[in-house]
Amino acid sequence: MTIDTEADSPVFFFDCDNCLYSKDLGVLQLMRQKIVEYFVRMGMSEKEAKELRAKYHMDYGLALRGLQKHHVVDPIQYDKEVDGSLPLDDIMKPDPVLREMLTGLKMKKWIFTNAYYPHAERCVKLLGIDDQFDGMITKKRNVIMVSLSCYIGMTFADYRIPDFACKPEIEAYKKAMEEAGVKDPSLCYLVDDSAANVDAAKVSRQLFMSA
After folding, report:
1. Which GO biological-process labels does this protein carry (predicted)?
2. 4 secondary structure, DSSP code
């Protein structure tokens, strides 16, 4: 799929986790447990780890952001031990209903995730929808830096960058628009399971339209 990303046209941004697949699969619960286990390996008790995971997620939108601000961690190793260790192959399978819905959506489609790109890439491949997101025909930063499959349109939290942007931070929405090649915020639509992320998108839209 190749769409001219330089021309402004409506863009649907889809969150990945608990959005492209059902929360009933239990991936979020497994992910939270992996994060707690990571915290415990840092020397915390399980009780402390659970409380801090919840606090960092609430304060920063992502537990890793809290770890980076208050601890010394390797974010890429963190990703390998958390998202990268999830048994997704045993949980996810192709979703023909989702695929039909995406195929029928005749506009640009991008993934907009707080995860690092390998996790989202695994998800869309297992769901059988990895060809449903827009091809990037210009040399966007994420194509050059990580050599993503060229048919996947994805804006993600880049864990390699100190103080990287993630939802619900306004900078994350600006980054998503830039990488998707859309200048008019009124043409952007977000599908996300987080009320905080949706509310921030509304604020971003107003800010960018008045800029």
Report:
1. nucleotide catabolic process; pyrimidine nucleobase metabolic process
2. -
Q: Which of 83, 90, 143, 85 is CA-nearest to residue 113?
A: 83
Q: pTM of the prediction? A: 0.85
- Please report which residue ranges of the chain form alpha helices under DSSP H: 27-41, 46-60, 63-70, 75-81, 88-91, 96-104, 117-126, 141-146, 170-180, 195-210
Helix (H) or strand (E) holding 6: none
Give one word for 132, left, alpha or beta, with left for phi > 0 and alpha for psi -120 to 50.
alpha
**What residue type is 26 in one-letter code?**
G
Percent of the chain's residues with pLDDT above 70: 86
CATH of 27-88, one of 3.50.50.60, 1.10.150.450, 1.25.10.10, 1.10.10.60: 1.10.150.450
Which residues, in sequence order, are bridge partners of residue 14? 111, 191
Q: Is 41 exposed, middle or buried (0-12, 13-18, 19+ CB in 10 A)?
A: exposed
**What would the two tokens of residue 59 be?**
């304060």
Three-state DSSP class for residue 2: strand
Could you read off the pLDDT of 32-88 as tens digits, one per residue?
Answer: 999 999 999 999 999 999 999 999 999 998 999 999 999 999 999 999 999 999 999
Residue 45 CA to residue 156 CA, distance in Å, equals: 31
Q: Where are the domains of the chain?
A: 11-22+93-207, 27-88
For residue 191, what are the β-bridge partners?
14
